[in-house]
Write a structure and sequence with these properties.
By secondary structure, this protein is of the alpha/beta class. The protein has helices at 40-56, 65-88, 117-124, 132-138, 148-158, 194-202, 213-216, 222-229, 257-276, 296-306, 322-335, and strands at residues 2-7, 14-22, 27-37, 94-96, 100-105, 110-114, 128-130, 164-169, 172-178, 184-191, 285-289, 309-311, 356-358. Helix 1 crosses helix 2, helix 2 (65-88) packs parallel to helix 3 (117-124) and helix 6 packs antiparallel against helix 9 (257-276). The protein is globular, with a radius of gyration of 19 Å.
C-alpha cells in the first residue's frame, strides 16, 4: 500500500508528513514528504494548550484550550495532507495519524493527544488509523517509544552492521537498539531539543539553537549537569518514557544563554550515554534522526561519548521524516493486526497490536 503518515512533535514547529510504500513488514519505497509550519497564531494556541495541560495534569475537566488547539492540529494536518496528495497524484490507501501530544504521564496510563481522526478521515477522504499510543498504555506499557518496529524495518533495508541503534532527537530523545538477531530494546533517553529550545525562546534568541552556535559559544555548568542527571529517570533499567517538561529549568536563570545551551546540549548527549550503559552491547553505529541531527554541536557531543554516529541523511534515509514514515508503517501493521509494540520497547507483557480505524463519512472516495 501507499500509506501517508503524520507527525507533529513537541517542538511545535509544524506538521511532518511522508508517504511510504509498505505492507507493514517491508519498506518497498518512499513517496513525497513535506513539513508544513504552524503559523504564529497556531503555535500560540498550541503553546497555551500545553501550558494548560501541565497545570491540569489529568485531574478534573479538560481545559477549554484543548478544543481550539485540536482544531489547529486538524487544520494543519489537512493542509499538509492535501499538499502531499497533490504531489503524489492520487489518494493514499491509508493514513497513520498520531496527533499532538500535550501531556504524557505513563505511570497513570495517561497520554493526551489532540486532533480528531474522524476530521482527518473526512477531510482527506481516506481511512485513518490512530490511538496507537493509548492501546499500549491500557495494556500496561509506557506508550512510547512507538517507532522501534519501523526502525527494525529500516535496518533491514539499509543493511548496516548490528548491533545498531537509531537515536531520534526531537523534543524528547529516544533510542532503539537492534541486536544481531533482530531483537529490540527501546526507551526514551531523556531530553532532546526541547529544553534547549525553551531557554533559547525565553531569551528571545529565536525558536532553537540554529546550528548549535549558541551552545558552542558557552561553557557547561558541571554542577547543573550533575543535578539534571540525578533525575529518577536515569536510575533503573527497562522500557521507560517521559515528558519533555519533566526536568526543571530554574537553574538556567542564573546562567548566560550560551552556558545554559551548552549545559543542556551536554545533558542531551550524556543522557544517551547513560542509557547506552544498560544496553546488551554497544552499537557499532548510531543512526541519528530528527531535528537534533542538524545540530553539529550536539552531534559532536554524541560522537565524543558514543563513537560512530551518523545522521539518517548520511545513510540514505530522511532524517526529518522518520517519525512520520513510522506512523504510516504502523498504520499498515495495525490494519493487518500485526504487533506495534513489544516487551522490550514499551514494557507490555507480550507483543501488542493497536490502533483504531476511522473511515470517511459522506464521501464517495474508495477507502480501505
Amino acid at each position: 500500500m501507499l500509506v501517508m503518515g503524520f507527525m507533529s512533535g513537541t517542538s511545535l514547529d509544524g506538521v511532518d508528513v511522508a508517504v511510504v510504500e509498505t505492507d507493514g513488514e517491508r519498506i518497498e519505497g518512499f513517496g513525497p514528504s513535506a513539513m508544513i509550519a504552524f503559523s504564529a497564531a497556531e503555535r500560540a494556541a498550541l503553546e497555551k494548550a500545553t501550558r494548560d495541560a501541565l497545570l491540569w495534569d489529568g485531574f478534573g475537566e479538560r481545559p477549554l484550550s484543548f478544543g481550539l488547539a485540536g482544531e489547529v492540529i486538524e487544520a494543519a494536518h489537512l493542509r499538509a495532507g492535501h499538499h502531499v496528495i497533490e504531489r503524489l497524484g492520487r489518494l493514499p490507501d491509508l493514513v497513520g495519524f498520531h496527533g499532538q501530544t500535550l501531556l504524557h504521564r505513563p505511570e497513570r496510563k495517561l497520554s493526551v493527544q489532540i486532533g480528531d481522526p474522524q476530521v482527518i478521515a473526512d477531510g482527506l477522504g481516506v481511512s485513518v488509523v490512530a490511538q496507537m499510543r493509548q492501546d499500549d498504555l491500557l495494556a500496561g506499557g509506557q506508550g512510547a517509544p512507538l517507532v522501534p518496529a519501523y526502525h527494525l524495518a529500516l535496518a533491514k533495508k539499509i543493511g548496516l552492521p548490528r548491533p545498531l541503534a537509531f537515536l531520534n532527537i526531537g523534543g524528547v530523545a529516544n533510542l532503539t537498539w537492534i541486536g544481531a538477531d533482530g531483537s529490540l530494546l527501546a526507551c526514551d533517553t531523556g531530553p532532546g531539543n526541547g529544553l534547549i529550545d525553551q531557554v533559547v525562546q525565553a531569551h528571545g534568541a529565536g525558536r532553537y539553537d540554529d546550528g548549535g552556535r549558541i551552545a558552542a559559544a558557552g561553557t557547561v555548568d558541571e554542577a547543573a549537569l550533575a543535578a539534571l542527571l540525578s533525575h529518577p529517570h536515569f536510575h533503573g533499567e527497562g522500557p521507560k518514557s517521559l515528558d519533555r517538561y519533566d526536568f526543571p529549568l530554574e537553574w538556567a536563570d542564573a546562567c548566560s544563554l550560551e552556558d545554559a545551551a551548552a549545559t543542556l546540549t551536554a545533558f542531551t548527549a550524556e543522557a544517551v550515554a547513560v542509557t547506552a550503559r544498560i544496553l546488551p552491547q554497544m552499537p557499532e553505529i548510531w543512526v541519528v534522526c530528527g531535528g537534533g541531527s542538524h545540530n553539529p554541536t550536539l552531534m559532536a557531543a554524541l560522537r565524543a561519548r558514543l563513537g560512530d554516529c551518523r545522521t539518517a541523511d548520511e545513510v540514505g534515509l530522511r532524517s526529518d521524516f522518520v517519525e512520520a514514515e513510522a506512523m504510516a508503517f504502523l498504520a499498515a501493521r495495525s490494519l493487518r493486526g500485526m504487533p506495534l509494540t513489544f516487551p522490550g520497547t514499551t514494557g507490555v507483557s507480550q507483543p501488542l497490536t493497536g490502533g483504531t480505524i476511522w473511515r470517511p463519512e459522506n464521501t464517495l472516495a474508495e477507502v480501505v
